[in-house]
Amino acid sequence: MSPIIKVENITKVYSRKGEQIYALKDVNFEVAKGEFVSIVGHSGSGKSTLLDILSCIIKPTSGKVWINGDEVAHASERLRTKIRREVISTIYQEHNLIPVLNAFQNVELPLRLKKIDPIERREIVNKYLKLVGLEERSGHKPDELSGGEKQRVAIARSLAISPKIIFADEPTGSLDQETGKQIIDLILETRKQIGTTIVLVTHDLNLADMADKIIEIKKGMVINIKNGK
Ligand SMILES: Nc1ncnc2c1ncn2[C@@H]1O[C@H](COP(=O)(O)OP(=O)(O)O)[C@@H](O)[C@H]1O
Ligand SMILES: [Mg+2]
Question: Could you tell me the pLDDT band of residue 140, with boundaries at 50, 70 and 90?
Fold first, then answer.
């Protein structure tokens, strides 16, 4: 079976004040459909840059990236936007919820962008708010929710479009250990239920070890790929 993600000779160079920063150097790997992969490395090793390239937010300086069969590094903004809206979802360290919208409306937003009709939208939003255990909080705005609850809403929002791939960049980084574990359990439970492919960036080796495959990066280079526990 062909991989759902394929990265070929990716390099990313940032130019800043005449200085060239090699954030990624000749990175190669594949992720199979339904696989749970973690990417580990110290701060500054290039993890977020890699995830931003995979999630079609930035383009690499050179190399190719296939997401769900489409080469995206050289694709039009139109195709990249479509993939961002319909194929993938991203969960960040900070939840990125919209402050003026309540939990329901935050989860609903990507469904609006996908032009799902209002009745179906309501059903989907309620289903995922329930899945993350927040059906009773649907009218709460982000500042009326705890840190863990906000991250749960962000997860519900990312699941609502039934993404083929979830990218998570240090999703538990701003939570205490116990809440962080609950969030990871929730992501794993979802994977069991809907078979989503998951790429998790973390510097927490205990979390990383829960994955099927662990990709270790150092100074922008893949230095090891191993199987999890
Ligand atoms: N927009 C940018 N402009 C210049 N340098 C950047 C930019 N983004 C990241 N970098 C640099 O690229 C390297 C990798 O950063 P990043 O991908 O954020 O690492 P990580 O997520 O592993 O902490 C770091 O040295 C960082 O300072
Ligand atoms: Mg980062």
Answer: very high
